[in-house]
Design a protein that fits this description.
homodimer; two-stranded antiparallel ribbon; 4 helices; about 35% helix; about 20% strand; DNA-binding
Amino acid sequence: MGYSRQREMLLSVLKDTRSHPTANWIYEEMRKRDPKISLGTVYRNLALLTESGVILRIDTEHDSVHYDGFTHPHYHFVCNGCGEVSDLSIDPIGIEAEVERETGGSVAGHTLVFYGKCKNCK
Amino acid sequence: MGYSRQREMLLSVLKDTRSHPTANWIYEEMRKRDPKISLGTVYRNLALLTESGVILRIDTEHDSVHYDGFTHPHYHFVCNGCGEVSDLSIDPIGIEAEVERETGGSVAGHTLVFYGKCKNCK
DNA sequence: ATAAATTTAGTAATCGTTACTGATTATCTC
DNA sequence: GAGATAATCAGTAACGATTACTAAATTTAT
């Protein structure tokens, strides 16, 4: 996978924030640097980078998908009030082997999401 | 919350399967029993039952939301090949208190989803 | 430098989900 | 039980996130 100017820009935007943005937020941010950027380009590159493990995708019970440029294994907390997604420093759990044993399949990864009210919304 | 005929039917459909169906699958199943059922009714009741904790909603990296009539705390495995969602018998992890301490918020629940290839797709 | 392959901007289409409305059904009070 | 009140429904339109498409531009390989 080569790195086009737009793909580089997307990565740089994503690495520069810890806010776990949505595709649309990233799009708006990229438009500030280059107003001709296309929303389709954002989605296509988000999919590519997710597939190759360069970035993380976070699915929650709320509206649209969030992305994370911080790939070191970690978990997330989602506020049911304001929808904000934040990182946790909980230690990764090591039970993928157990899941493989139980399912007979192969495990590539896992996601752990906590829901509740953040300090502000509580 | 009263239980209308349609809501009862939805619950019965969901309790009768362990397949973690999507809204549309449930809709088709209910249509077999009552062809006049409305898709809006399915979605409205899924939202109501999820909010009140009678059923579970499962968000994955694949297409649409899945639902689970089995509410005893448990985790899920999602196959990246066929998209099938299956139950795991892993013991629930008890770290919500730790998350509350770290975030300063309140935790209402958590979801743990493993991704990989199932026995068939591997 | 030229040819081949990839990526893009822009736009149209898709699909899951939600919102709306007037009709129907359930519940509540007498 | 009859009538009033509230909840729920079927049907359909609207919405918003995401994907698909196409011709032009850019990158990469020769």
